[in-house]
């Protein structure tokens, strides 16, 4: 199955005064998260620059609870769910506020596995102002070895500095664990909590480790307790041709490049302000050109002061 990976060059300013504009700003810092079964986990969403009244509230959609949402004022959050929120008072001439909310899940079970949606709404009802989603994976112990292995994050952009390998076992607390990859031993940092022995290894993953088996072993016997792997992603990068500023009203050229292996890239896609760009069909540009097998996008007479330019690569696999 093909997958599309994107990169956005945000707030591209031309060499004229950039017009001021308002938008709710939010960055999903936890698109995915992992928790070991039986342990607690907290998911956080943060939204900034909410225009107008601070009379807003957060609601959470939880996979284990059907047909309703949870909020900090819910009287029936259940024994395992706690929602908190903090909404700041309006600030500045623009009368904007910022807010955050957390959802804490105690004693996670497989029923908690799934997508959690954090929504910001007016307290008295109305349209949803913003939504942030987190895909929570509940890691289960292997019934045969009583151990579990996982990677945080499961899919890691190749340009990211580090990833974390985690191994957990409910065997004897005196057990000594180690990681092994391609015959190379990675000892890591061992700890204990609630009768579980953990082994953590933080490292920069080499390019040739893409989807290779990462083994957690009992150090003395070399018995394999569990295994996992890292899937390396190759995000594209948007660049201006040539480097530098773009003159108002002039032609703008953008290039999309990636570190992915050429044989794995089956195509390129472009978006301007989140709207797909195709030759001669974009709503603002009737003479858009896609060149160099769609790696280059040319926009004539660029006149917008602020724009989002996004390119995506289509990878096979």
From TrEMBL:
Under InterPro entries, the record lists:
Cell_adhesion_signaling (IPR051275), Ig-like_dom (IPR007110), Ig-like_dom_sf (IPR036179), Ig-like_fold (IPR013783), Ig_sub (IPR003599), Ig_sub2 (IPR003598)
- Topological relation to the membrane, as annotated: Single-pass type I membrane protein
Gene3D superfamilies membership: Immunoglobulins
Q: Where is the signal peptide?
A: 1-23
Q: Keyword Protein transport, does the record have it?
A: no
Record keyword Cytoplasm present:
no
Q: Which residues cross the membrane?
A: none
**UniProt KW keywords:** Disulfide bond, Glycoprotein, Immunoglobulin domain, Membrane, Signal
What would be one Gene Ontology cellular-component term for the protein? Answer: cell-cell junction
Report domain Ig-like positions.
20-137
Please list the GO terms describing molecular function.
Answer: cell adhesion molecule binding
Query: Where does this polypeptide localize?
Result: Membrane
Name the record gives this protein: Ig-like domain-containing protein
Q: Native species of this protein?
A: Holothuria leucospilota (Black long sea cucumber)
- Lineage from the top down? Eukaryota, Metazoa, Echinodermata, Eleutherozoa, Echinozoa
């Amino acid at each position: 199955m093909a997958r599309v990976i994107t990169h956005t060059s945000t707030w591209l300013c031309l060499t004229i005064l950039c017009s001021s504009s308002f938008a709710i700003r939010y960055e999903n810092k936890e698109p995915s998260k992992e928790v070991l079964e039986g342990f607690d986990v907290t998911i956080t969403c943060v939204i900034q620059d909410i225009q107008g009244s601070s009379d807003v509230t957060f609601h959470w959609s939880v996979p284990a609870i059907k047909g309703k949402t949870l909020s900090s004022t819910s009287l029936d959050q259940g024994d395992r769910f706690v929602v908190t929120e903090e909404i700041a008072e309006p600030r500045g001439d623009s009368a904007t506020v910022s807010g955050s909310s957390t959802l804490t899940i105690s004693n996670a079970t497989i029923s908690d596995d799934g997508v959690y949606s954090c929504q910001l709404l007016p307290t008295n009802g109305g349209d949803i102002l913003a939504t942030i989603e987190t895909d929570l994976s509940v890691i289960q112990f292997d019934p045969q070895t009583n151990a579990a292995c996982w990677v945080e994050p499961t899919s890691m952009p190749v340009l990211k500095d580090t990833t974390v390998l985690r191994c957990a076992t409910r065997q004897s607390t005196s057990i000594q664990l180690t990681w092994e990859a391609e015959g190379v031993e990675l000892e890591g940092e061992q700890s204990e909590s609630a009768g579980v022995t953990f082994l953590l290894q933080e490292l920069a993953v080499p390019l040739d480790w893409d989807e290779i088996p990462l083994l957690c072993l009992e150090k003395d016997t070399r018995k394999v307790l569990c295994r996992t792997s890292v899937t390396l992603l190759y995000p594209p990068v948007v660049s201006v041709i040539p480097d530098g500023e773009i003159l108002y009203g002039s032609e703008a050229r953008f290039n999309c490049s990636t570190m992915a292996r050429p044989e794995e890239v089956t195509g390129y896609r472009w978006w301007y302000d989140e709207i797909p760009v195709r030759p001669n069909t974009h709503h603002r540009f009737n003479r858009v050109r896609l060149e160099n097998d769609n790696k280059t996008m040319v926009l004539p007479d660029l006149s917008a002061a602020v724009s989002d330019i996004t390119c995506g690569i289509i990878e096979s696999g």
